[in-house]
Amino acid sequence: MNRNHISEQEVSMLLNDVLERYGYDFTEYAHASINRRVNHLFQLDRFPSFAEFRYRIISDADYALRFVEEITVNVTEMFRDPQFYYVLRQQVLPVLATYPLIRIWHAGCSTGEEVYSFAILLKEANLLHKSVIYATDINTSVLEKGRTGIFPLSQMQQYSRNYMEAGGVHDFSSYYTANYEYAKFRQDLGEKIIFSPHNLVTDGSFNEFQLIICRNVLIYFNKTLQDKVLRLFCDSMEPLGFLALGSKESLNFTSVSGQFRQLDGKEKIWRKHHL
Amino acid sequence: MATASRVVLIGGSAGGLQAILTLLPGLSVRLDAAVIIVLHRQNSTDSVLAELLAVKTSLPVREAEEKEVLLPGTIYIAPGDYHLLVETDHTLSLDYSEKVNFSRPSIDVTFTSAAGVFGPKTMAVLLSGANGDGVEGLADVHEAGGITIVQDPDTAIVDFMPRHAIQAVPVDHVLAAADMAPFINDFAGLVVG
């Protein structure tokens, strides 16, 4: 079943092409996952040979964009890891509540399901009105989806369960209007969310935040890039700010580990030391 | 310590846990290969699974961490709700992409990825299960020159997965779970001393 396979060297060539021609830098991504996705796209789009695949990427900017969007992972869900949201609600929101203006950066937000989840937490804590959430991703078409606040209705049952496990006490369906197969989330939830493109590899800091959420993004980067992005987060954060990562990600053995302390418990939430 | 030069992959779905519990006690404590287990399950029972397996073997058992180096004589469990991949430098990567065969972790993803890195130094074992995940990965292990083992469907709690694999892939050994350990020990070789 080893069809028409693209080797790791060939994948590297493509990534270099995309960097030189279009400025997207995937060269410091972990190889195994990106190899798998490049091979998947190669087969999906039925290229007869590597040469033709490569030529199309180099010569067709629209296709190159498809390449970029397909090799990045955009899977997400609302209230993913409910316990994580429970701890945010219990331990982080009370601290954020003390600020006059709450600035949050959700990096690598994909289609925005987790951003809306957090907006619901803020709403319920009566903090959303004084918050701004910058939701960023490298992929502009997923941001477009996030902006609409429209998600598949088929997922809502699962999301409602997650919401309750995360400590939600309201009727989850009060947050959206169902229309055919889609759920459109309430306008007031999206009002404080700014969806905007940002490339963690090449773009710098753009503000100082009290909370940075970046979940299941670092797992796709190699160690060097992980360190670089974590330094970016550290530099974009106020003293005593919070950094929240995915359930299998960690600051241990990274260049910023000395500047953060993990909250008690097993959730992947760290707090930056006071200077 | 040097990274593992061989890998033993074990994949299972419904009924797979029982088979793993049966074969683990037979594994030699001087195994000169890394063992990776991909088991379909609800994602909330992770730490429980590692503890459950640890009781059955003296080899260290742990849930795989991203960037972790594969060491010989260690058993790694694919964490719930992530795919587990192997890098060419014998470290592990996690991936939260789309489910494959309705599964995350997917047996196919890990088998195919590991076969690409370890080639003929791969042994893959497919156990009891009710879906087709693992069959394509097993084929990739075979193509890479690795050894393929499938649980004897007559001994599997759910025979769909092993039966499907035997039909679709050239399988080197069809065995009951209780008979697998000697083959794995033999393939992996033993650390001398």
What do you see in this structure?
- The complex is a heterodimer of chains A (275) and B (193).
- Chain A is globular.
- In chain A, the strands form two sheets. Chain A has a seven-stranded mixed beta sheet. A three-stranded antiparallel beta sheet of chain A has the order 3-5-4.
- Chain A has two domains: 8-71, no CATH class; 82-272, Vaccinia Virus protein VP39 (Rossmann fold).
- In chain A, a hairpin with a 6-residue loop joins strand 9 (260-262) and strand 10.
- Chain A has helices spanning 8-22, 31-44, 50-59, 61-71, 82-96, 113-124, 140-148, 156-165, 187-190, 223-235, and strands at 102-107, 131-137, 150-152, 176-179, 182-185, 193-197, 209-214, 237-245, 260-262, 269-272.
- Chain A has ten helices and ten strands.
- With 275 residues, chain A is of the alpha/beta class.
- Chain B has 193 residues and is an alpha/beta fold.
- Chain B has one domain (7-188): Methylesterase CheB, C-terminal domain (Rossmann fold, 3-Layer(aba) Sandwich).
- In chain B, 29% of the residues lie in helices and 20% in strands.
- Chain B has six helices and nine strands; from the N terminus they run E-H-E-H-E-E-E-E-H-E-H-E-H-E-H.
- Chain B has helices spanning 16-23, 46-54, 107-118, 135-143, 160-168, 180-188, and strands at 7-12, 34-39, 61-63, 75-77, 83-86, 92-95, 122-126, 147-151, 173-175.
- In chain B, the strands form two sheets. In chain B, strands 3-4-2-1-7-8-9 form a seven-stranded parallel beta sheet, with helices on both faces. A two-stranded antiparallel ribbon of chain B has the order 5-6.
- The longest helix of chain B has 12 residues, at 107-118.
- The interface between A and B is medium-sized, with 20 and 24 residues.
- Chain B: One of its GO terms (biological process) is chemotaxis.
